[in-house]
């Protein structure tokens, strides 16, 4: 093999350029194609007044950070780097006001020790750090504290304290009311978790009714403007399966036909009806299934969107959602991150190109030297 300085410089530059493109630039190329949606005036609720500026919200789900027990170290390194680059690129491009992560932040949150959980939390905040002016809220998922019958008061408190994430939470921004629910507390069996959540939901329902009809409540709430709330939770509302879903990031056909198990793959019908009747949400956004879905609940005039997993480990074409929201309207846009298969393909094509250049260059140099010797 004939090696020259210029040859080494070209090969080195090509390898570095390939790495930079596949690990940094490709995220900008993909995500810059996604932008904030525009509100459609025809979909606004004429009965609700909206005076504030639209709120820009980013939503994602099922990050599933690997713990110490499951997964290879390279698997953890690769997928967490992907999520960090995608999230930080989205932050720089979109600059949302609020970010919501809808459960299963961790893959082993229900099994890990206190020291492992502390490391988990620190790693999460490193990967999903937000700039000043952007708030971050999380919803608990089954991989964070366990399914209903595996949850202890200790596990619930540990997660709630770390992320300020109670079982039922409502807060309002610019006249928009957000309700965040612990899906595992919707079992309806009267346990320590469910009974407390039901009481909080009842109080929330009364509060919303008071905002809607202040004269009937004697000023028992400090909120003055009513709008139908937006509900965020980990489990989807009750549905039989994903068969009716028709999204680019939907489940594979064989999975779409599988029947959902209530309280396991989705909320029970009773719990779903209870949430609809108590809260009357105008929009529901969920996660858990790792696949995208859009469902219209005609009886309650509400759309539900299920987000696919943000992690390449669970989805080749992960996505997140951008939402522009006012008190009486909203618009949504789903953003698709680079497919893992696409990045692998780029590496293969780039590597083959470098190899082809190496072989061609070596042959050219070899024949030049032979000709020179003959002369």
Structural features, described:
By secondary structure, the chain is of the alpha/beta class. The chain is built from 9 helices and 11 strands. Helix 1 (5-31) packs across helix 2 and helix 1 (5-31) packs antiparallel against helix 9 (340-374). The longest helix is centred in the C-terminal third of the chain and has 35 residues, at 340-374.
Name the helix and strand elements from N-terminus to C-terminus, one letter apiece.
HEHEHEHHEEHEHHEEEEEH
For the record, give the distance between the C-alpha atoms at the N and C termini, rounded to a whole number.
Answer: 22 Å
| Biggest pleated-sheet summary | 6 strands, mixed
Number of strands: 11
Q: Which percent band covers the strand fraction?
A: 15-25%
**Helix segment count?**
9
Helix/strand-derived class?
A: alpha/beta
CATH topology of the largest domain: Purple Acid Phosphatase, chain A, domain 2
Residue share in helix:
25-40%
**What is the CATH first-level class name of the largest domain?**
Alpha Beta
